[in-house]
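Supplementary Text 2. Reproducibility record for the structural model of the 144-residue chain.

All settings were left at their defaults, and a single model was retained for analysis rather than an ensemble. We include the record here because the model underlies the residue-level annotations in Supplementary Table 4.
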Amino acid sequence: MVTEERQICGESHEVDDDGIIIASETASTDRMQFYNLRGPQTVDPEGGVLDGIHGSVQIDLEGSANLPLSWPTPDIDYSGTLTIDRVEGNVLFQGAISGFPAFELYFVANDNIPVILARNEPINPIELVGKENRLVRVSSRILL
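Retained model, structure tokens:
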């Protein structure tokens, strides 16, 4: 049973020419969500049903946020599906992220230690233009 979901944006900093922080702010998570919790089967966009990992659950996620200290700025986007393999104790994420800035993806279950699923270095600020296009497919062992 999912009892809580949490999306987090890290704090952004504006610095002066000497590297001194002159402003800090955290982006809103209002446009981030989990949805479509389901078992191991999912609908194929081209018709029919796709079987997933036996004994797993899947949940879709998507989100957008922008840098809070500058306006207007393009959205930083992500979308994908999280699969929790309850039999083998694995979690998998398959989706896409914006190529800028750096992205981190964590997973935690039952108050255990968070597992780092991915850390992606930034590519180029121009990657913010348009929808997310950097494909990500990661997995890790977890404690349930």
